[in-house]
Amino acid sequence: MSVPNFFQTTHLKPITYEPYNRKLRLWLSLFPSPRQSIVFLYTTPNYSVVTLRKHLVTTQSDTAVTLNSYIKAIMAAQVANPTLFQYIPSSKMESCDARWRELRQSTYAEAFAYRLQAQPSPLQSLHSGVHLTFQDLVHKRESLPDGSFHKLLLGFYTHLPPVRADYFATQILAFGEIPTSPNYIYHDATRSYLVLTDFKTSHIYKEITHDLPLPLHSQLILSLSLQPRTFLFVNKFHEPFNRYTFSHWANQQLETIFKKGLTLTMLRHMFISTIDFNNSTPEQLQTIGNQMGHHISQQLLYKWKSQGTEDAQDKSSEDSDS
After folding, report:
1. Least buried of 77, 137, 195, 220, by fewest C-beta within 10 Å?
2. Mean pLDDT in runs of 10 for the chain (322 residues)?
3. 122-318: which CATH topology?
4. CATH 1.10.443.10 placement within the chain
5. Counting beta carbons within 10 angstroms of the beta carbon of residue 53, is it exposed (0 to 12), middle (13 to 18) or buried (19 or more)?
């Protein structure tokens, strides 16, 4: 039986619609068999949300953030499949459209209120690593075995402004070779050059590039000599990850390294929380934003007021990571 794809015709990128597909397939599975369609889901907003929340309670994920992500998924699916709804009365569609917009707005307001307060999200607060600082990441990185995947992973998220799960299939090439993957690293014995063109906001920022700092370049060369491969990170079958499996794998590695719950998104928050916004120029902030693939205004929403210290100002001075 084929897995349904609700975005056969869409302007959305796979990085956006693939998670939407997963959410919608799960959501539909909660309904009785005759009702497992996006038309039924969309035209019964209250029933559908209640059904979803009953399930989310069982997985301890009934939060506004999670609800908002599911609501965006069904609204995007309705836009991508207009012919499925052509026989629904216009008055019915108008009321459903209005209700979904209301639900999206209310869950968004609740979901991201924590950002205005410069605090971790409710789900992030459940992770035991939420009180780690960026400097803790650096200290741990330096204690890890040279050439190990753990040190290399942490190195790419601490030596450079941390990106999202964008190292999922990063090809390793000699200078002059032609890449077959959209994300790649040119390298020789003396230097390495990173190019990312497949990331969430590539339609805005086009590409993210870096000359790797010498310590990171050295770790990469050593790692490649210990475990020869053609991609930066590989799974147990020595194959590159996709974005979803890389994110899952990387989060698992972080938990193994720190013996605490930690995610790539949290690393981005930790990094941004080290930035002195009062003494940085707009140009400096914009450069960092470009390197992380998000707008300068997003940085303020990513910044956490504190990470295990009572005085955020003290924390910022001690720290030297979405």
Report:
1. 195
2. 83 91 97 95 96 94 92 97 94 96 91 64 63 93 97 98 96 97 97 96 92 98 97 96 94 93 89 86 87 76 50 32 36
3. hpI Integrase; Chain A (1.10.443)
4. 122-318
5. middle
